[in-house]
From TrEMBL:
Keyword Zinc: no
PANTHER family referenced in this protein's UniProt entry, alphabetically: AMINOALKYLPHOSPHONATE N-ACETYLTRANSFERASE-RELATED-RELATED
Any one GO molecular-function label of the UniProt entry: acyltransferase activity, transferring groups other than amino-acyl groups
Location of the N-acetyltransferase domain: 3-161, 169-296
Keyword Transferase: yes
A matching Pfam family: Acetyltransf_1
Keywords of the record: Acyltransferase, Transferase
Species of provenance: Phytohabitans flavus
Descriptive protein name: N-acetyltransferase domain-containing protein
Length: 296
């Protein structure tokens, strides 16, 4: 099959979203194709489109790491189902690798680039993508997982919030004026990536953040929707405030927002403390991702 590759333009975006709705094999991903594309294109990066017979056949998006600009990320690659196994995906990936190398990258990751990402890595159910990564010289170096929370069974936080209030802790929805303090708290206790995700969760449609404070000091936060509307995270509590029940309250408040938005399930993304989420809301490990790297 003959095809050509050119830089992705704004004019290509509507067709790109349509392609992703068809090419992303997992229904939950296809349903959020427009949000995934918008989130990934919100950061500086590279993008290429493959065209065959006058129609969009495949796309790739990439970026430099927000922590280390010698590392490149492939954020999304999708090829239309009816033109797969024609070399389009391989050619798009090679073009992205070259572009990232031209910007100074010495290695490329097939992994999420917080705060702008749609997946931690390649979902293991995208078996052709896993096979392609191995065939094209990428090495698996990490595994990540999501947990799924049933939003129809989320318990009330009223009593827990009353107990916290008796100890001087206020829990409420974060507002625009809270962003500087939240960003400072996230950077000091967690990472710049989390700071970016929290900042992007406040005041944006399909996203939100709740915060716990005592005497005006941030003790913890929980956010959702920064990467995708159905995804929860990140969430963090100050070490000195752990054990008070703040995390469970913040988590359930966010999940309740997502339930009220019409979701029956939420993905708790890139999970660390599995036992906490399993105990707090009965979440279960479901999506598993392989993360890959390749030296250029």
């Amino acid at each position: 099959m003959e095809f050509s590759i050119a830089a992705l333009t704004d004019a290509d975006v509507p067709a790109m979203v349509d392609l992703c709705r068809e090419a992303l094999d997992l229904p939950d991903d296809a349903a959020e194709a427009d949000q995934i594309v918008a989130r990934l294109r919100a950061q500086p990066g590279i993008g290429f489109a493959a065209t065959a017979d006058g129609e969009l056949a495949g796309v790739v998006l990439g970026s430099l790491s927000h922590r280390d600009d010698s590392i490149g990320h492939v954020d999304l690659i999708a090829v239309r189902r009816d033109v797969r196994r024609q070399g389009i995906g391989r050619a798009l990936l090679a073009r992205a690798e070259g572009a990232l190398a031209g910007r100074g990258a010495v290695e490329v990751l097939l992994a999420g680039n917080p705060p702008y990402y749609a997946w931690p890595g390649i979902d293991v159910r995208y078996t052709p993508a896993v096979c392609a990564a191995n065939a094209l010289g990428y090495e698996q170096d990490r595994t990540a997982w999501n947990m799924t929370a049933d939003l129809t069974t989320i318990e009330s936080t009223v009593e827990a919030e009353e107990r916290l209030a008796a100890g001087g802790v206020t829990v409420r929805r974060a507002e625009a004026g809270d962003v500087p303090a939240l960003v400072e708290f996230a950077r000091a206790n967690f990472s710049d990536g989390w700071a970016g995700e929290v900042s992007d969760s406040v005041g944006r449609p399909g996203a939100g953040c709740h915060v716990a404070l005592r005497d005006g000091e941030v003790l913890g936060f929980a956010a959702y929707g920064s990467s995708r509307p159905s995804w929860f995270g990140p969430m963090g509590t100050a070490p000195a405030a752990q054990g008070l029940g703040i995390g469970g309250v913040l988590l359930r408040r966010c999940l309740r927002d997502q339930r009220d938005a019409g979701f029956r399930q939420a993905q708790i993304g890139w999970v660390g403390p599995v036992p906490f989420y399993a105990s707090a809301v009965g979440a279960r490990i479901e999506r598993v991702f392989f993360l890959y790297r390749k030296e250029l």
